[in-house]
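User: Can you recover a sequence for this backbone? Please restate the input before giving your answer.

Assistant: Of course. Working from this structure:
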């Protein structure tokens, strides 16, 4: 691939633009726990969580399922979803990176496994969403990364060409999924690292 071919930059949201920390969410929700890792894995690795990310169920329905299947109280699940949203703080300089990419003339897009209610929270809480030229949210389509269809949906909806597009995501399997459909992709670690990796592909920022 010729480096100068890149015309579009696609951003994941969790741990690229805002923080996503399941263990922190569980610790805040259940402060009496001495260890949060196992419960975080169970809650956020469950079919319940996958279903809300696919848009199959609402947040209210998801809370009810957690109450039934995990024996959580109504207050537990209310607190859980409060912290799911409130812990998603902006990563340092993430909005500024999106702005620099956009101001340099590249198309900027979002591709995220995410929940309808959380996306609305992000849109009303922060200004970054309006910077995107377009976005694909898993809950709108009923499919998740790294399924090829979600990357193809992004390209089809916005007329993007894979070889002209680079995707930034913190998860290696999602990076591999993007590469499998012909995109360039970067495993994101920090704004500084991500920007350097974009520049190494020939982007002028």
């Amino acid at each position: 691939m010729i480096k100068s071919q890149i015309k579009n930059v696609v951003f994941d949201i969790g741990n690229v633009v805002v923080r996503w920390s399941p263990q922190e969410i569980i610790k805040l929700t259940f402060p009496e726990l001495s260890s949060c890792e196992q419960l975080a894995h169970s809650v956020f690795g469950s079919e319940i969580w996958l279903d809300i990310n696919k848009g199959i169920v609402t947040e209210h329905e998801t809370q009810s399922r957690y109450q039934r299947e995990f024996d959580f109280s109504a207050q537990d699940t209310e607190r859980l979803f409060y912290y799911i949203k409130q812990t998603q703080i902006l990563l340092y300089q993430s909005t500024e990176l999106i702005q620099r990419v956009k101001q340099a003339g590249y198309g900027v897009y979002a591709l995220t496994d995410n929940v309808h209610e959380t996306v609305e929270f992000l849109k009303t809480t922060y200004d970054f969403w309006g910077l995107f030229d377009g976005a694909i949210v898993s809950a709108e389509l009923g499919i998740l990364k790294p399924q090829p269809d979600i990357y193809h949906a992004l390209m089809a909806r916005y007329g993007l060409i894979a070889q002209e597009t680079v995707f930034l995501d913190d998860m290696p399997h999602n990076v591999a999924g993007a590469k499998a459909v012909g995109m360039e992709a970067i495993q994101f670690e920090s704004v500084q690292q991500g920007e350097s990796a974009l520049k190494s592909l020939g982007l002028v920022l």
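That completes the design. Strands lie at 8-11, 107-112, 134-137, 165-169, 184-187.
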